Amino acid sequence: RRWLQTELCRPCLTHPIFHWWTEFDSVGIQDFCHEAAEFISMASGDVLFFARSEANCAYFVVKGRLQYIFDATSTCVSSESGLISEAALWCDWKHAGELIAETGCEVLVINSNGLAKCLMTSPAVRHVISSYGRAFCSLLLYSAATRSEEEMQSRLSEVFSLVDTSDLPAPEISWFSILPSLPLSCRLLIAAVALKATPRSGWTFMPKRSPPELLEEVRAGKCSIMMN
Asked: 138 partner at 20 to 30 Å CA-CA among 70, 164, 174, 182?
């Protein structure tokens, strides 16, 4: 049953941090899929979450379409939309908008409490994912700090005290912007997994250096390496 749940979840775990975890610790990712992930079905018109409601889950749309309503605008959400409400995994969060099923849907739900429980079993995984979560929250706070005083005052009662960004993924708060800021130990673990798991034919470019040489470049701060 655990194996089946993992195989069902695996195609949905497209976020790079979960992709890394899958390659680094196959047993740990099975625990995660069993303890923290579940599939739910929704009928047209069902509401997944309401604005200003407490959030402790992130979501990935497997099938179907939903409408996300935020600041009087509506956005179509599908399997191409990425991880919805990711902030709920890393900090105290309230939903900024509401998400309503437009068609029949299947959604993968990732529970933050289950994730925290699974991270306790592996110090290395906990170190990398916790560091990523802290960096994610720092970018949220930076986003708040760059807003005008009037806008911030109007949103004090909203999400994460000062931040009222959309529940949808934001380009400025992405894996690609976070990776270079992670501690060196994390970037080395991420690079080592990428170098081991990806055959040379699968590289976006063909480096002339060997894997040990590339790891030294990561250690020297010259580059970051990841699986995409």
From this structure: 70
In contact, 138 and 67? CB cutoff 8 Å: no
Instruction: List the one residue out of 47, 170, 37 whose CA is nearest residue 115.
Output: 37
- Which one-letter amino acid corresponds to residue 63? K
CA nearest 132: which of 98, 160, 174, 161?
174
The β-bridge partners of 38 are 109
Structure tokens at 122: 């592996």
Answer yes or no: are the C-beta atoms of 224 and 183 closer than 8 Å.
no
Q: Which of left, alpha, beta for 45 (phi over 0: left; psi -120 to 50: alpha)?
A: left
Chain centroid to CA 124: 18
- Better-scored residue on pLDDT, 224 or 155: 224
CA angle 140, 53, 145 (to 5 degrees): 20
Identify whether the C-beta of residue 184 lies closer than 8 Å to the C-beta of residue 161: no
> What count of Cα atoms within 13 Å lies in the side-chain half-sphere of residue 27?
2
- List, for residues 22-51, the tens digit of each pLDDT value: 999 999 999 999 999 999 999 999 999 999
Name the nearest CA neighbour of 189 among 129, 139, 142: 129
